[in-house]
Write a structure and sequence with these properties.
By secondary structure, the chain is an alpha/beta fold. The chain is 51% helix and 10% strand.
Length: 264
C-alpha cells in the first residue's frame, strides 16, 4: 500500500513540474512576441533616402539648379564665374546624379530677402527647379539686428520657403550670412543666422552654416585689389566677399548637405 501511495506522489510531482514548464514556455513565448514583432517591423521599414538619392531617382534626365540670393550667388569674388560656388555645385551635382544639370536661378548684388527674394518668387517657380539654394541675409543684416529688421527677415524667409515647398518639388537648402572674419556686421549676422536656423527647423529645410567657413579664417576672403575679368563691373576683389577658397568650401558644404538623409 505504501508503494502505491509513493508512486502516486511521484506521479503528481511530475505532473506539477510539467505544468510549470508549460506555463513558463507560454509566458516566454508571449513576452518574446512583441520583440519579434518590433524587429520584423524595423526590418520591413526601408531607410529614408538622402536628398541626393531623391534627385538621382527623379524620372528625368535633366535637373534644374536655381541659386537664389545676392552677390555671393552672383559669384563675387571667385577667380571666374565657372568656379563660383553655384557652378561648382552644379557640376558636382551632375557628376553625382549622372544627370545633366542646368544652372538657372535669380541672384543680384546688394539684394535682400525682402526686396528680391519675395518679389521674384513667381519667376523662380516658373523655372521648375529641382534644387534651390536660398542665400539671403548678408545685406539684410547691414542695417543692424533690430527687432523690426529680424521680424521682417523672418517673415520674408518664411514666405520664400513655404511658397517653394508648396509650388515646386525642389530640394531646398538654406544658407546663413557671409562675413569676413571679424567683419563689421558679425554681431548682426549671427542674429540673422539664428533666424535662418529657426526657419529651417520649423519647415525641415537643411541649413548650411557659412560661419563655419569664415569664422576664425582669414584665408577665405581677399586679398583686395585683384581685378577679375568676369566681375569687372563689380570692381576689384575686396576683403568682404569669399575668394576662390571660400567658394570651394561653400560648394563642398552644399554637396555634403545633399548627402544627409532627407527628413521630409
Amino acid at each position: 500500500m505504501k508503494k502505491i501511495w509513493l508512486g502516486l506522489g511521484v506521479l503528481l510531482l511530475l505532473l506539477a513540474a510539467g505544468c510549470g514548464v508549460s506555463r513558463q514556455a507560454a509566458k516566454s513565448s508571449r513576452s518574446s512576441a512583441p520583440v519579434r514583432s518590433r524587429q520584423a517591423s524595423a526590418a520591413s521599414t526601408p531607410p529614408r533616402p538622402t536628398r541626393l538619392a531623391r534627385l538621382k531617382a527623379k524620372n528625368k534626365a535633366q535637373l534644374v539648379y536655381a541659386p537664389f540670393g545676392d552677390s555671393l550667388s552672383v559669384g563675387l569674388f571667385a577667380d571666374k564665374k565657372a568656379s563660383r560656388f553655384t557652378s561648382l555645385f552644379a557640376r558636382q551635382l551632375a557628376r553625382l546624379t549622372g544627370k545633366t544639370v542646368t544652372e538657372a536661378g535669380i541672384a543680384e548684388v546688394g539684394k535682400t530677402a525682402t526686396n528680391l527674394g519675395v518679389p521674384a518668387l513667381p519667376q523662380l517657380v516658373a523655372q521648375h527647379p529641382d534644387v534651390v539654394t536660398i542665400e539671403f541675409g548678408t545685406n539684410d543684416a547691414v542695417g543692424g539686428a533690430t527687432p523690426t529688421a529680424l521680424a521682417a527677415y523672418q517673415q520674408a524667409l518664411t514666405t520664400i520657403v513655404t511658397t517653394l515647398q508648396k509650388e515646386t518639388s525642389a530640394q531646398l537648402i538654406l544658407m546663413t550670412t557671409w562675413s569676413p572674419n571679424q567683419g563689421p556686421y558679425v554681431n548682426a549676422d549671427l542674429k540673422f543666422d539664428a533666424v535662418v536656423k529657426a526657419v529651417g527647423q520649423t519647415y525641415q529645410v537643411p541649413v548650411v552654416d557659412l560661419a563655419t567657413i569664415w569664422q576664425g579664417h582669414d584665408d577665405v576672403t581677399g586679398p583686395a585689389g585683384t581685378v577679375i575679368p568676369d566681375f569687372t563691373a563689380n570692381g576689384p576683389r575686396d576683403t568682404f566677399h569669399p575668394n576662390q577658397r571660400g567658394h570651394d568650401q561653400i560648394a563642398a558644404q552644399l554637396i555634403k548637405t545633399l548627402e544627409v538623409i532627407n527628413s521630409r
